[in-house]
Amino acid sequence: MADLQVAPWTLAIPVKRTAIAKSRLAAAYPQHRPELARSFAVDTTAAALASPLVRAVLVVTDDPVVAADVTAVGARVVPDLPATGLNEALLHGATVAAAEFPDHGVVALSADLPALRPAELTAVLAACVAPRSFVIDLPGTGTTLLAAAPGVALDPRFGVGSALAHQASGAVPIELSGIESVRRDVDTAADLAHAVQLGVGPATADVMSLVLGAATGTEGLAC
Fold it and tell me: What is the annotated signal peptide range for this record (predicted)?
């Protein structure tokens, strides 16, 4: 792993206030949606910090509970001063990252990767040799990761059809096998079920245990 230390990255992870995040999970998880959104962010952050290619994680958020939780696992919190949307939050995080770590590449990473595995993230980051690279989500239309080399503008274009938008902007798709955990972002109940099959992190597993307990009238069941 020592060879991996030569190409450090700083990650920017944007997190909405959990009171409004993951609205598409509300029908399936009406009582636990905010806790799920928070747990996704915590597990994503912790897994990212475990990669030897990641030197720092900046979580861009105005949610005080998320801020406390990600700080506890080792991230730094950057207030979402623009407060005008996802791409603006990422640009803000990238600006802070570039100012503090000018020799690092900058990565925008989805906060909704509860099954993220550090080894798979490391493989992706090692493959980011173009000026800008990105990972297409499992449905094939979105983006879960966008990387920019040191000194290169991130130019995030997240949103509907972001995979095509990023490719049109000159970013190069990372085409590796065995990186499902980097591609499995969670927006729907079906997405979450697949993430659970892959193996979610401890924060999400704890919430899913509560969900299962509520459904069966018991508490503390393992996911």
Answer: none
